[in-house]
Amino acid sequence: MNNTKVALVTGANKGIGFQIAQDLTTRGFTVLVGSRRLGSGQEAAQRIGARAHALQLDVTDPRSIAAAAERIRGDFQRLDVLVNNAGIAYAGPPGASFEEKIAAGRPSTASMDHMRAIFETNVFGVIATIQAMLPLLRQAPVGRIVNVSSTVGSLTLQSDPSHPVRAIIDTLYSPSKTALNAVTVAFAKELQGTNITVNAVCPGFTATDLNNFRGHRSVEEGAREAVRLALLEGGPTGTFSNDDGIVPW
Ligand code: NAP
Known about the structure:
By secondary structure, this protein is α/β, with parallel strands linked by helices. The chain has a domain at about 5-90 and about 130-150 and about 180-245: 3-Layer(aba) Sandwich (Rossmann fold). Helix content is about 45%, strand content about 15%. It is built from 8 helices and 8 strands. The chain has helices at about 15-25, 40-50, 60-75, 100-105, 110-140, 155-160, 175-190, 220-230, and strands at about 5-10, 30-35, 50-55, 80-85, 145-150, 195-200, 240, 245. An 8-stranded mixed β-sheet has the order 3-2-1-4-5-6-7-8, with helices on both faces. α2 (about 40-50) links the parallel β2 (about 30-35) and β3 (about 50-55). α1 crosses α8 (about 220-230), α3 runs parallel beside α5 and α5 runs parallel beside α7 (about 175-190). The longest helix has 28 residues, at about 110-140. The structure holds NADP nicotinamide-adenine-dinucleotide phosphate. NADP nicotinamide-adenine-dinucleotide phosphate binds near residues 11, 40, 205 and 206. NADP nicotinamide-adenine-dinucleotide phosphate binds near residues 40, 85 and 210.
């Protein structure tokens, strides 16, 4: 087996995923920069440095996922960490303002097509990617799966009148992260007692394209909890956390 640990970060060509990829290379990992457009992944990998390699990966495309797993097995022979970071918050035409993105999620008027597209990426894409990468992760000395979720997916916080996420009235993105949390718990239970841990993290409200750079946290801050769990060997499984600690489901 190749001696250098290998991590795959999906949606790593920009935003929080790029930062997670960069941070993992500085911790000695070979990092596969998952990107649905290979060119963007190649540019990102070049910016990160020699330990980063672009990997074409569209999490909504089964052939792309299968080809990515094949390439990892052939070219890198191992996978220790999978960070499911790729995600979308809006499925309408490009160029929408932050306010338009928020309005699109209104439960009484939200588009079912948008909801399907968001779930396709944020939920089904994660399940399909984990399934394809599991045979490799099972061979790792210590396998780690980190799902990048959000506190807006916490039903406990959404129901708490005193919590700021209560103000977000959204039936597209937030429920997709609630479902992702459920998926995290299901995989953690199935893989309990194996070499693989499965956890969900929230980066906090981070300035990226996803929110038209309205977030108040830097990508360095946003990447921190995912990187912590990606590095943790013998850590917990089936948890949901952010920089402040455990987040309620
Ligand atoms: P971002 O800058 O928009 O980055 C999203 C990444 O996901 C991009 O690389 C994008 O690729 C990729 N992606 C989208 N659909 C994909 C697909 N089908 N296959 C593969 N890659 C795909 O957003 P971000 O803020 O860094 O988001 C990263 C993660 O953090 C997401 O899961 C998001 O839900 C979560 N999150 C973000 C915040 C926040 O405040 N920013 C808060 C909580 C959670 P393209 O460049 O090709 O579009």
